[in-house]
Amino acid sequence: MAKRIDDFIIKENRQISKDFFVLELSGNNYLPVLKPGQFVQVKVENSPETFLRRPLSIHDVDYEKNTIKLLVQVAGKGTTKLSELKPGELLNIIYPLGNSFSLPAENSKILLVGGGCGVAPLLFLGKYLKSNGYNPEMLLGFRNTSRIIEYQEYIAIGNVFLTTEDGSMGEKGFVTDHSVLRERRFDHICCCGPSSMMKAVAGYCFEKSIICEVSLENLMACGFGVCLCCVVSTVSGNLCTCIDGPVFNIKDLKW
Ligand SMILES: Cc1cc2nc3c(=O)[nH]c(=O)nc-3n(C[C@H](O)[C@H](O)[C@H](O)COP(=O)(O)OP(=O)(O)OC[C@H]3O[C@@H](n4cnc5c(N)ncnc54)[C@H](O)[C@@H]3O)c2cc1C
Ligand code: FES
């Protein structure tokens, strides 16, 4: 798919919790067809120390309004600068980058598992699956109640199972501790979050022979296969997370 470099106008910058905000971007040109799991490379203006673009997942797309949303966690200098953007300002992005989650087999029982800012691509994925006739359910993990984000958005798609590490909402523990994984059988699991979480989910899926796709968040510089800084070891050799991923089937990873 052809890549574009476009200026988007910030329509809204909405803080949704202490460290998280959602940027709604309005395109001057019509959006191409975007797929869940794909990401954009964002230019952080007026910030010499963050001259490399920052990769962010496509969180939501509205083709009628010609907008996309990015869910961003403040992690360092680049994301702090992005959190200060005001409506009307411009954001330059390269997109669409990377591959996407695959469409599960018909009638599959699908679970989307996310933690922290790893929930970002799952909203677009959940809506996309629903519009294609699936009934995805979600298992989301957060540190505590105050860190729960976008709950209303996910519940609008389907069942949401929650864990918090302190037990303040949902079941106590990590996503892999949730009882739904013991009591129900899923056919296809899509996962995004911290590497330790994805490896734990992958372990569960290997054990139960469940199809599992994970979206890796390796450090990236270029985002389109030139710098080789995002290489991941797979059964087919070393691959670039930015072009061969970020979504991988766990059976292809050397985990
Ligand atoms: C394909 C992809 C999709 C992503 N989607 C999202 C998203 O939707 N929302 C979101 O908030 N974040 C996402 N990330 C992570 C995001 O790119 C980083 O948090 C961001 O680049 C940090 O930039 P910074 O300048 O604020 O922090 P820096 O000052 O560069 O770093 C601050 C801290 O963040 C860590 N960090 C930097 N880059 C990454 C990275 N790629 N992954 C994990 N930790 C990193 C650094 O190691 C350091 O500890 C994604 C990453 C990838 C590769
Ligand atoms: S980020 Fe440059 S090759 Fe992947």
Backbone structural class: alpha/beta
Distinct small molecules: flavin-adenine dinucleotide, FE2/S2 (inorganic) cluster
Would you report the number of β strands? Answer: 16
Biggest sheet, in brief?
7 strands, antiparallel
Strands in their spatial order, largest beta sheet: 4-3-7-1-2-6-5
Strand share of the residues? Answer: 25-35%
Distance between the termini: 29 Å
- Which geometry do the CA atoms define? globular
Q: What is the residue-mean pLDDT, rounded to a whole number?
A: 95
- What's the helix-strand series? EEEEEEHEEHEHEEHEHEEEE
Number of helices: 5
Question: What does this entry look like structurally?
Answer:
This protein has 255 residues and is α/β, with parallel strands linked by helices. The protein is built from five helices and 16 strands. Strand 9 (137-142), helix 3 and strand 10 form a beta-alpha-beta unit. The longest helix is centred in the C-terminal third of the chain and has 14 residues, at 195-208. The relative contact order is 0.15. The protein binds flavin-adenine dinucleotide and FE2/S2 (inorganic) cluster. Residues 220-223, 225-230, 240, 242 line the site of FE2/S2 (inorganic) cluster (FES).
Attribute tags:
255 residues; seven-stranded antiparallel beta sheet; seven-stranded mixed beta sheet; 5 helices; 16% helix; globular; binds flavin-adenine dinucleotide; binds FE2/S2 (inorganic) cluster
